[in-house]
Amino acid sequence: MDMQPAFAPLVTDDKRRLIVFSFLMAALFMATLDNQIVSTALPTIVGEFGQLERFGWIGSSYLLATSAVMPLYGKLGDLFGRKPVMMAAVTIFILGSALCGLAVSMNTLIAARVLQGLGGGGLMVSIFSINADLFEPRERARYQSYSSLMLMASGAIGPTLGGTMSDAFGWRSIFLVNIPIGLIVLVGLLAMLPYRRPTRQPRIDYAGAALLALAVASIVLAADSAELFGALVSVESLGVVAFGLACAIGWVAVERRAPEPIVPLSLFGNSTFNLLLVVSIVSGSIGIGLVNYYALFLQTTTGLSPSVAGLLFIALTGGIVIGSLSAGRLISKFGFYKPFSIASIGLSLTALALFTQIHPDTPIAIVALVMLLHGFGVGLGQQVPILGIQNAAPQRDVGAATGAVTLTRMSGAAIAISIYGAIINAGLRDIAIPGVDNLKELTPKALALLAPETRHLVALAYSHAFLPLFAAAAVSAGIGLMAALMLKPVRLPRHR
């Protein structure tokens, strides 16, 4: 492992450092909220613009652009300094938000979402990279837990807030509200965040950046092919995968010769870096990807209304909050992160195994306890990949390493969401229930109107369809647990 030089914080005054951190949290909340807040407004947008066939692109375009530029922003921060890169990301995000709010067609909205994603990806990577400059490794663990809470908060309130704002002020308001928030963040960081000039001559690896962006975009696009192309495996999706592999091979060839590679290949020579990337992918798949399916599981197998099912998410979110805050403080105190990665994935694996035993007659209290357990497990390991990789990477490559680990987490979530969706669709295929025209399109409101016997048959059908989903997620968790067990028992240094 590379020996780290004595840590020199970007801001030495504690009060000013907390102010800068507050602006960073506001920016993180804004960027992550925007991917959640749009979900409940989508039907309204489609009602105005039509083109239902492009429905999925409103969300996919943002995710695609965000993922594609994460490694590039991390490297630009290493080369030019965090402040100008962060300022540029906020500005692009504000501009993209304004264009989303002013969109006149589905095509212009999708194009604006791409621009917004180009800023959002830079925001997330820059924020975690700046945190590495603000706080020493031990102290960083505590503050990264607050970042995790911000991510969870945006996911928890995003859909509700989006629906409320869309009803009260129109769907354009969910994008335009980012403008005043973004301007406050921009002015605040301009005034309070110091600029640390890098000591090396910046040279941009344009070819490597383009090839990596195309490879990443292909992965995300292929993962979403069930919605975009009608099937997870199709001629189009296989073409996208082939193109992505060609770009990835080309990227490796270019990076071997580049003086300033986007992601230095030397990082992959560190076993800690490689193992934490695996942990990060698994964390995204079981910590983010599964959340999208819990609501469907609860409403179909237990017959809960959307509002009551939403209340059960308090158990999941509460577990994440408790786990994240506990891990942050304990890692800060003792310096070891490996035990928390093992405990995190181990608890999630236990929860997934328990989910395979839940059936339509399982008491709601038991379901809530299993969700609490899963949330606690996710919270314990939420910050481990970023902390570990930032500590393992040389100081000159912290931004590039942060971009890589943030990218793998989002890619893991995107791929898992697609696979889980394909599993559910396969499980419900060719199932006919008397009185139900289309089982896959059955809304909670329509489900409540069915006869009790029919509702029970629907619950059984979905319960059986979810079994292989939880089994697949458990296999993913098992892979992550093996990677966590293989981590070296590294202790984060305390410089001050």
Mean pLDDT across all residues, rounded? 81
Uncertain runs: none
CATH domain class name of the largest domain: Mainly Alpha
Distance between the termini: 21 Å
Helix content: over 70%
Question: In the CATH scheme, what's the topology name of the largest domain?
Answer: Growth Hormone, Chain: A
> What's the number of extended β-strand segments?
0
Q: Number of DSSP helices? A: 20
Strand content: under 5%
Major sheet description: none
Overall outline: globular
CATH homologous superfamily grouping of the largest domain? MFS general substrate transporter like domains
What is the C-alpha radius of gyration, as a whole number of Å? 22 Å
The H/E string reads: HHHHHHHHHHHHHHHHHHHH
Please state the second-level CATH architecture of the largest domain. Up-down Bundle
Based on secondary structure, the structural category is mainly alpha
Number of domains: 3
